[in-house]
Amino acid sequence: MFYVFWAVAIVAFVVEIWAFVDAVRRPAGAYTAAGKLTKQLWMIILGVALLFGLAGAVALVSIIQMLPVIGFIAAAVYLADVRPAVRQYGRGGSSSSGPYGPW
Fold first, then answer.
1. Would you place residue 63 in the very low, low, confident or very high pLDDT band (cuts 50, 70, 90)?
2. Which residues in 59-102 belong to E strands, given as ranges?
3. How far, in whole angstroms, is CA 52 from its chain's centroid?
4. What global pTM score does this model have?
């Protein structure tokens, strides 16, 4: 049973890494334009979630304890709510895309 919980913790940690990396790649202006919390605040939230996930993945804390669960929920909220909202604003910089697709 330990290995099942450890595998779940590893998967949750990968999701937290994905959310953190995605948040780093998005421009800061996209968060405010989408009406979400600022990029800096999301980086703090996801950074703490990443630390909780790492602790769960290396079995410093049990997956049943609340910290890894809270970290996964924070990453899931980012991926389900914030990411779709800021994704439409792009990654910043110039691109050859117009408002309806590539030129």
1. low
2. 97-98, 101-102
3. 13
4. 0.81
